[in-house]
């Protein structure tokens, strides 16, 4: 079981690091499919791995000058505050409701990303009133991410693309915001954390290595259209698997 967990999570973490996301969207289902409990193992471990993946990716993107630190700071703060609230709410909902919400979130994010494929690639990060709405959107995304055991990147990445961020800057800035929301969300779940420490440490080292590799590939090699297409296909596949 440990070997399968390492192989699967290493693979998906490379891709999610390329998307500026932590990978909780797949870490949680993978741990569930391997027989771990949703609320006490899969979700808290998933959001911890989410934070580690996005943090390592963020360091790479920072070195390549891709992160919009100042413009996205309000989004990061709202995400930091609301992510633990989502984790608190999650333990008052049934697993069935959480899984249904999971599928809805994934489907929305996939469709929104596919819509951006036909749009021209922006030249610079946007400015103006959209940042206010983006901050509110990031808070809602972090709340939903905390509730579902994600970091909120599922919503935040499409949100930044909608705002007009160039794809690579959107990916890098998503990693920045998701790092805040993931670790904040994990702290909100510490009281419900009952995962084996061996599993937690091994998977943490796994995602750190995968995130370093994936973020370097994105910063130096990947094309914006490839990133968006891979993201949408991956989301649709996970959503279909959860429905089945």
UniProtKB/TrEMBL annotation:
<feature type="transmembrane region" description="Helical">
    <location>
        <begin position="170"/>
        <end position="188"/>
    </location>
</feature>
<dbReference type="GO" id="GO:0005886">
    <property type="term" value="C:plasma membrane"/>
</dbReference>
<dbReference type="Pfam" id="PF01925">
    <property type="entry name" value="TauE"/>
</dbReference>
<keyword id="KW-1133">Transmembrane helix</keyword>
<protein>
    <recommendedName>
        <fullName>Probable membrane transporter protein</fullName>
    </recommendedName>
</protein>
<feature type="transmembrane region" description="Helical">
    <location>
        <begin position="194"/>
        <end position="214"/>
    </location>
</feature>
<feature type="transmembrane region" description="Helical">
    <location>
        <begin position="134"/>
        <end position="163"/>
    </location>
</feature>
<feature type="transmembrane region" description="Helical">
    <location>
        <begin position="41"/>
        <end position="61"/>
    </location>
</feature>
<keyword id="KW-1003">Cell membrane</keyword>
<dbReference type="InterPro" id="IPR002781">
    <property type="entry name" value="TM_pro_TauE-like"/>
</dbReference>
<feature type="transmembrane region" description="Helical">
    <location>
        <begin position="97"/>
        <end position="114"/>
    </location>
</feature>
<feature type="transmembrane region" description="Helical">
    <location>
        <begin position="73"/>
        <end position="90"/>
    </location>
</feature>
<keyword id="KW-0472">Membrane</keyword>
<comment type="similarity">
    <text>Belongs to the 4-toluene sulfonate uptake permease (TSUP) (TC 2.A.102) family.</text>
</comment>
<feature type="transmembrane region" description="Helical">
    <location>
        <begin position="6"/>
        <end position="34"/>
    </location>
</feature>
<keyword id="KW-0812">Transmembrane</keyword>
<dbReference type="InterPro" id="IPR051598">
    <property type="entry name" value="TSUP/Inactive_protease-like"/>
</dbReference>
């Amino acid at each position: 079981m440990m070997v399968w967990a390492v192989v699967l999570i290493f693979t998906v973490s490379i891709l999610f690091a390329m998307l500026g996301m932590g990978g909780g969207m797949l870490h949680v289902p993978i741990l569930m499919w391997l027989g771990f409990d949703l609320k006490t193992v899969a979700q808290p471990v998933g959001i911890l791995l989410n934070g580690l993946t996005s943090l390592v990716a963020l360091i790479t993107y920072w070195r390549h000058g891709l992160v919009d630190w100042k413009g996205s700071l309000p989004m990061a703060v709202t995400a930091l505050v609301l992510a633990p609230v989502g984790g608190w709410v999650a333990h008052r909902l049934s697993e069935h409701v959480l899984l249904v919400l999971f599928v809805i979130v994934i489907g929305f994010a996939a469709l929104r990303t596919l819509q951006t494929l036909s749009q021209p690639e922006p030249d610079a990060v946007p400015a103006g009133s959209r940042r206010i709405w983006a901050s509110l959107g990031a808070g809602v995304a972090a709340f939903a991410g905390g509730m579902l055991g994600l970091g909120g990147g599922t919503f935040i990445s499409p949100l930044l693309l909608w705002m007009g961020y160039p794809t690579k800057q959107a990916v890098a800035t998503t990693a920045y915001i998701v790092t805040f929301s993931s670790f904040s969300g994990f702290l909100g779940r510490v009281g419900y954390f009952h995962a084996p420490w061996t599993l937690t440490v091994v998977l943490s080292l796994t995602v750190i290595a995968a995130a370093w590799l994936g973020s370097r590939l994105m910063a130096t090699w990947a094309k914006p259209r490839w990133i968006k297409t891979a993201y949408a296909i991956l989301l649709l596949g996970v959503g279909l698997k959860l429905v089945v």
